[in-house]
Structure formats: C-alpha cells, structure tokens
Amino acid sequence: MTGPQAQHGDPRNPRPGGLQTVVLAGGRATRLGRLAEQLPKIMQPVAGRPFLDTLLEPLLDSGLLRFHFCLGHLAAPVLAHLRDLPAPAEITAQVETVPRGTAGALRSGAHHLDEVVLLVLGDTHLPIRYTEAAGWLAPGDEAAMVVTDARTGVPANTTVRDGRVTAYQKAGNGGETDARWTDTGVCVLRRSALDHLAGRPDPVDLGELYRLLVARRTLAARRIHEPFTDIGTPERYAEFRARQERCTPAEESPCEYC
Prior knowledge:
Blueprint: E1 20-25, E2 45-46, E3 49-50, H1 51-61, E4 66-71, H2 75-83, E5 90-95, H3 101-108, E6 116-121, E7 124-125, E8 143-148, E9 158-161, E10 164-168, E11 182-190, H4 206-216, E12 219-224, E13 229-230, H5 234-245
Helix pairs in contact: 3-4
C-alpha cells in the first residue's frame, strides 16, 4: 500500500488511475449477527471469494485504480486481502480505533482524500459504469448521490425533485415519506462538504451530512433504474450469495444477476 494521495488537480480530469474511490467498511455489522463476529461484512464469502472483490469489479472495469479504505472493526483480514490485490491498483487505508460513524471516518481521514472522491459503502454492489463519475457533479454541487427506483429489497428513502435530493432518511427508519428513490450507497463528494460537520461530535453518520446538504440544496441526484445490492442483513446477503453462485466462470457473458 502507498501513502496518502496528493490533493490537487482538476477533479473532472483526474490524474492517472482515475477518480479516487473511498470505501467505507469500518462498522461492526451488527445486523448480520453471528455472521460478522469473526469476519467483517466486506469479507463475507460470495461464490468462493470475499464480497470485497465483487464490490471492486465494476470500479476496476471502469478504469478506477486508486482506492482509500476507511476501516475499523476486524480490519486485519481486510488489510491482508488488500495487500494481495494485483497491480496496478493503488491502495491506502486508515483504521479507526474508536467508532466515528461513516461521516466521522471521512472527516478524520480527510487528509487522505482528493478534492473530489467517489464514495462507496462497503456493503454495496452497484455494477454500473463509473468512467465519467467525476462529471456527475455540476458547478455548485457539493455531492451527487446515485439513487435508483428499481426494486432492491431496501426501502425507498430519498425524495428527488428537479434533479436534486429534497428529502433523505436512513433506510428502515420508518415514518411518513413520499420517497420513491433509494440511496444506492454510492456518491460523488467534494471533500469541502465535510466542513459542514464542524463542531459535531463523533459518531456522525453520512445521513446527517446528506441532510445538511439537502437543506443547502447542494445534493444532486444521479438517477438510475438499475438495481443494486446491499448485503447488510442476513436475508439480503443470503439472496445475493445464492444469485452469484448461480453464475459460473464458464459463462461467456454475465447472467441477469451479475
């Protein structure tokens, strides 16, 4: 693994290796129960390999080679696996020793981040093209959240109007909402947006940051119709694992589940 990355250059024309991708994978995965007692969520097995490899595939296929991992609970097996990733992937990582929350982890590691980053939650698989992800941000946008209206098993949690996120709640929080879009766990974020969290104690969740950006009208919506996978519950993990295991390397093209 290499050291912290330089923080300069035009984010729309990133340096070789593409837009820096930040993977948030430091949580305790309490919803997975006993499955995550010895192995972190991002390392859960899927078709004979860690979920981490599945998460990275569409990013690598899009030419993104620069990754920063925010880790915490059970970081050791993740770090060991990252050391074995083949070149030319360029990896940095930080390991939190106290719970900071998803946004708190970003804030504490901001010195590792480029001016604009692609943010990916470590339990998310979204197989789309990321080649032009830096261009999802328009001037004045502080972030662009990828949202889908596909049925995924994750409750809709996002309201979108005129290309902007106008309301956001964490999935499963309940309450009345007119949301019909679902946050896919993928977002392009300006590092400077983290400044809005100044004075807020850890742990602080990404949902809190997103709601601040909604209030500022600076959170754009990148709308798609493709489904994504969130393996955050035993049921969704088992379903995804079963789908992937029905896909074999011998197939000439990906099946409908991949």
